[in-house]
Amino acid sequence: MASESISVTTSDDQTIQLSRKHAQMSQTINSMLEDSVGADQEAIPLPNVSSEVLKKVIDWCTHHENDPAPVEKVKKLNKKREYKAKNSTISDEWDKNFVNAELRVIVDILLAANYLDVKGLFELMCKHIANELKGKTPDQIRERFGIQDDLTEEDKAAMRKAWGATKNDS
Amino acid sequence: MWSTLADELLIRVFQHLDWQALIYCGNTCSSWRTVACDESLWYDLLRQHPIYLTPSELKDTRLYRREFARRAMGLVQNHSHIPDSSHLAEFIEWLADPFPPINQFVSHEDLYLLSYRFEDIKCRFMVLSYYDNYIKEISKVALFTADHQFFASISFIGHKMSDFPGPTFGQRQGSTHREGWRPKGKTWKMFIHFANRDEVCALQFSISNNREVIGQTIMLEAMRDYLFPDLSFDMFLLILLHSLTHDSVSINDIINFAHFSAAKPISAQNCYSSFKEVPVRTFEEAIGKCGGDFVAITNLLPQYSWESLKALVKGYNSDLIVTRSQICKYWTNEQILVFQTLMENSDLSQIYENPLFDKRSLKIMWDAVEFYHYGGPFIEQETTEEGTYLGQKRKYRDMVEYQT
């Protein structure tokens, strides 16, 4: 019978135990587990995830362990032929607290969720980052996200022309 | 860190943005600008916000972003600006694509009326208006024959009074009588404008689940109250078909209607009878001449259906993008109507389990389904999960392959 806990090794050489249920919420780990059926149960290496971030991921998985399996919602067939905008509202209070972290941590979790293929967590991070971007001017975005303005005046002029010009101007 | 985030991740974030935030993100740095210019993001926005692209503009997908932003920016920069009739015209031209407009005018109440040729006798048209910053589709329907022009609109239940254009729309010309738009429970009101007679009539009929009853009611109303000798049942049928077509009517409803009226049955199979498979050798010769460009191929082989060509071109070049306009170019209006009718009605099983459809043509239909819903090929990891689009696709594709 399969063990109830799984060992993983993080990028900072920490070995962390997580339950099989939580591990299976990650498609990446799940695939590795399926590939290693019958083999010696060694710790699964996760070279792209630090222990700090993995603990965050496990926290999220613990809270959402009883959620229904994710369904293909985004491109679901729509009877009325209306294309629905993605809903970027985070409704779960726990999730709201969860994403209340430094942007550095958020992007680490995003990368980890992508690498581990935890769909719900990945979508949550995308929504949160999108919400952070909304309502901000380019200057405010640069300041908030620590982005260097590497656009030249020519770039900006070209953009104004492409995105803001009238037909007569262009 | 942020400016070096992988593009595919950034796109997933940007998918949650509205157009304005997307523009601002694109003005942040060069790498974000590249991602923010991704056509798929703008195409999605365009689908969410049907903002005013004319059919000619739609032909060039590179214009999505620019046109969307230009026009949307115009609305935002000037808050007092509201869409005017020119916006409306562009908007409904976009909606109506690929039906070539044959008649259009703006009424004195700023209703925009537009008709479209549909094969040789039929037409549809839309009635729209705009309030505040929104363009609203009030109602739609119509028909057109070689001999007469009829314009009709049907007010749908559940609309607020403020959604309707006002008390004078149904007024008969030269008459003091006015037909108001008063939604009364489950009542529809149909206005028919005989364009070549400068005459308008208004018919009222009740909603019923039995569509034959609706048809009979309309006809009797018309004959009793208006005595239009040339307003045959077929004419009313066409009106009704067109209205219902846009309100989730099934192909079986259409066929029942056709049988009921003793009109020529409308067979979905007939609609697709023009499908022709392209011989592989012919295709290979053509592709050798033009290098795999879809438009060039279709120009070289105009005698074959676009579905068949596209299936082959996709095999040749999996990155192929075929635009909606390109699809429309190679579909007959009737094909589009029947297909849209089915797609708007329900899930895919309605198509796949409908005995009217040739099973062998269904594989081709997948492409059309994907274009219909996603504006392009749906490329994602395979799944057999029931209830999902791909799950259904897998299920029915297997069924088709088995039967063929």
TrEMBL record, chain A:
Pathway it acts in? Protein modification; protein ubiquitination
Q: Sorted alphabetically, which InterPro entries does this protein's record hold? A: SKP1, SKP1-like, SKP1-like_dim_sf, SKP1/BTB/POZ_sf, Skp1_comp_dimer, Skp1_comp_POZ
GO annotations of cellular component type: cytoplasmic SCF ubiquitin ligase complex
Q: Pfam families this protein is in?
A: Skp1, Skp1_POZ
Recorded GO MF terms: cullin family protein binding; F-box domain binding; identical protein binding; kinase activity; WD40-repeat domain binding
Q: Which residues form the SKP1 component POZ domain?
A: 5-66
GO biological process, any: ubiquitin-dependent protein catabolic process
Highest taxon, organism lineage: Eukaryota
Keyword list (alphabetical) reads: Hydroxylation, Kinase, Transferase, Ubl conjugation pathway
Domain SKP1 component dimerisation, first and last residues per copy = 119-161
Family in the record: Belongs to the SKP1 family.
Please describe the quaternary structure of this protein: Multiprotein complex (SCF) with cullin and F-box-containing protein. Capable of undergoing aggregation.
Q: What is this protein called?
A: S-phase kinase-associated protein 1
From TrEMBL, chain B:
Question: Which superkingdom heads the taxonomic lineage of this protein's source?
Answer: Eukaryota
Q: What is this protein called?
A: F-box domain-containing protein
Listed Gene3D superfamilies:
1.20.1280.50
Return the InterPro entries for the record: F-box-like_dom_sf, F-box_dom
Q: Please state every residue range assigned to the domain named F-box.
A: 1-45
Question: Which Pfam families would you find in this protein's record?
Answer: F-box-like
Q: What organism does this protein naturally occur in?
A: Planoprotostelium fungivorum
